[in-house]
Amino acid sequence: MIRLLLILLVAGLPLRAEEIVADLSQDRISISTNFDGSEILVFGAIKRNAPQPVGTDMAVIITVTGPRENITVRRKARRFGIWVNTDSREVNGAPSFYSVSSSIPLSRALTPAEDDRWRITTASALTAPDMTTMTDNDPEFLEALIRVNTAAGTYGTAEESVQVRDSTLFSADIALPADLTEGNYNTRIFLTRNGEVVDSYATSIYVQKVGLERWIYALANDEPILYGLLSLFIAIVAGWGASAVFRLFKN
Predict the structure, then answer these.
(1) How does pLDDT run across 1-55, given as a tens digit for each residue?
(2) Closest listed residue to residue 74, CA positions, set 128, 124, 145, 154
(3) Burial label, 219 (beta-carbon count in 10 A; 0-12, 13-18, 19+)
(4) Given the DSSP bridges, would you call strands 98-102 and 155-158 parallel, antiparallel or unpaired?
(5) Distance of CA 21 to the CA centre of its chain
(6) 113-116 long-range contacts, CB within 8 A, separation 24+
């Protein structure tokens, strides 16, 4: 009886006029000693249960969010001829990587209200309620955080980089830098019309260190004392070896 009621309830729900069907070229990335970055292809289609609306701005937006971490943003000022830290802000849960790609300029693809609701643009994602220490009242620190990470290649906005064919098929290449943080990279895809989100799709990419990189990472985090002693031993052996080679050539 309960199963019958659930079937009737689902059958009575209205079908969405447009839905996103998407996938990734790969959902796992392995970081080894020779890893120098990667590129993920995000592709999909828009499934329609009704004729496509006419005379509206359609857009596809893709965001990729890396594992979150706590960051301190500092302001430097010149005092008595030297640069010193004068102020700082703690950012709790800032994404280690954040990428935004869109098929049309974001000013047309997304209204400010929808951006606040879905936290899509970089500035909006960094002022989410769960990051209470970074607010819109700290524009200088927010701009500095975005500027530094953009220069490092860990934050980026690529407008008009999502290719849409026949208003149905879409694809985009998302570049991932070499210094990725291990963990899940949440990927969201939004379909908008006239700046309003009409559907969204979410998946994830898992990044994991393997081989020697994995062993060193695990040792440094799980056994920091042993890692420090091993590093010291390697430094001593390397120094002794270099000295021995130098004496050999000198003689």
Answers:
(1) 444 433 433 344 445 789 999 999 999 998 877 788 899 999 999 999 888 888 8
(2) 145
(3) middle
(4) parallel
(5) 21
(6) 114/192, 114/195, 114/196, 114/197
